[in-house]
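Repro case for the chain-ordering regression, as requested:
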Amino acid sequence: MSIQKKVGILGGGQLGRMLLQEAPNLDIYVAVLDPDKDAPAKYLCHHFVQGSFSDFDTVYQFGQLVDLITIEIEHVNINALKKLQSEGKEVYPQPEIIELIQDKGLQKQFYQNNSILTSPFVLLNDTTDLITVSPDFFPAYQKSRKAGYDGKGVKRIEHNSIDAKEALSGPTVLEKAVNHQVEIAVITASNGEGQVISFPVIEMEFNAEANLVERVWMPSELPDSIQQKAHKVAKELTLKLGIRGLLAVEMFVTHEGEILVNEIAPRPHNSGHQTIEGCTISQFAMHWRAILGLPLITPQTTSVSCMVNVLGEKGFSGPVKYLGMHEVLEMSKVYPHLYGKKITKPFRKMGHVTLCGDSRNELKIKSSKVMQVLRVISN
Amino acid sequence: MSIQKKVGILGGGQLGRMLLQEAPNLDIYVAVLDPDKDAPAKYLCHHFVQGSFSDFDTVYQFGQLVDLITIEIEHVNINALKKLQSEGKEVYPQPEIIELIQDKGLQKQFYQNNSILTSPFVLLNDTTDLITVSPDFFPAYQKSRKAGYDGKGVKRIEHNSIDAKEALSGPTVLEKAVNHQVEIAVITASNGEGQVISFPVIEMEFNAEANLVERVWMPSELPDSIQQKAHKVAKELTLKLGIRGLLAVEMFVTHEGEILVNEIAPRPHNSGHQTIEGCTISQFAMHWRAILGLPLITPQTTSVSCMVNVLGEKGFSGPVKYLGMHEVLEMSKVYPHLYGKKITKPFRKMGHVTLCGDSRNELKIKSSKVMQVLRVISN
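-- result from build under test --
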């Protein structure tokens, strides 16, 4: 091995899979822990352990196999990571940062305490608290404090008179809806050796029905002053957290050009996939460098790029079948990435396609064609 | 699986490794056969079989596990492949083409029979035949007809009065040395559905001592007319062979601008590695498309690129250790690819580094720095 440290990843989904496609370039030994015996990353690692990354004993024992533990999902057992760290294992991102980020309420309080602009919010212990919120706080988004992702655990609420049965139960954070012009993201990397870099600003386009990102654009076409502000916010957040690894910072840009932090993730992120083909270095290559304390370089775009999520089609659940791949492969500078999931479900992320080109207009047409022809159904 | 056919690769070296880094994007099931239990491609495949790819029974049994068999090295058991093909398995490239190419004597005869320009040659049964060759045929290169690669099985001979003990024994082909300005290569792909494409012309720069390629340049700076001729020769050869898969065609460009075919290889090739970062599609992605009968697209360069082989340093044999990787990672648009070999030997290919940039001059300086700082030694 070129890299002497053995690395373990908690989680073996598509992010782990893409980390593993990159890892051989530096000859990194990687073990993976995932509950799914058919996890997308399973066959690409040196050693796979089937088990729950939220179980203390499982994570603790998995940690014994390696020198450095990292994550591709934040819903992991923090106590096990803290114990591993106290016993001399390296854990990046650091357990206390993952712990903060895995709770959307703590995330919001962190922004507030560190003077980082974010939308107004209220913490709710349960649905009964809803009625205590001022009517003019609505419309708002109610989010489960823990374990929500990909549009799950998020509910738009129009008014506090909502039937409590319609709302999300348990501890949640209620966020005032932001009237924004666009949602953007900046991914940063920090290597614990003083280097902090940021990837180009990306713009997200949503599928309203699924509340999932449908298309991502790079570079952003926002005024340079706003982009600079976004880089500044993301880097400040990175430094204030003191994270080593990647930090994906999702932000709202208001109509007034103000930037509000929405959510953060301490790992490779869906909004950074097109860095594989559209940047001089990918978020996956950067993740390895960051957690291993290797030199970071500033990523530059190499073309205009667009990332399209490949989602399971509504109405289909079961063994996956792809239609239209032939047409996609006929298009130049179009890069499919399938995640190897055996089972499709409505709106499940089954893969993504990156398109590179000279202009956003060109890619609007091409990506629409990809979204039209590439279908994920089941037999 | 998106691709319904299971694929088996004979050979699990660095070419197999890079094929496997690409395979997940189309969700291809891949099994690998290699004699080395630590083969570079081993841990990246779905199923690994340790065994000899030159043994009939081993290859035949391995073939039973999959639907389509391909290669990353041409020194494989042809009879087993022919039997598998006759029993309904797909084999690409086709066994009879691998058989022709694995014999450097048959290769030369094929060029001659198909009016493809190549250097003058003589077939020798053994060293005793040397004396029968006219003195004005020398200097010449003597090559073992089978199993020679990477500078092994090749000997430069100045005169037919050479001591027979100095020459290569067994059946060889003696090729008149060509007084050339540059050695180039074009990799083609053919998908069996009528599509034949070719990658941009690359130029090779040799390490004289090891008779190994040291730097590869893309795109070529030769006059367009010569490059067009090179594409034409490579595509003609592809069509005349009727190969399905990749064909790497190494050619000499004489001082008069004439193109002579040197050698061919029916697989991904060392001269095509920089297509990963320097082209709109890599040779590895193209190989999968070609053998699976999927659409091919014409590759375009995305920047000037240079590939540097990372070779084991003279005087070191044993467990590998890399020096200077930190300095390499500090350079922007520089992409190391380590092959994961545990043991280094003098001039063994341990990896490669691709550099991208705006001009050859810029990359000459950067690549010299890489070659200077990156050292492969052993403890």
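Ordering looks correct now. The first helix of chain A runs from residue 14 to 22.
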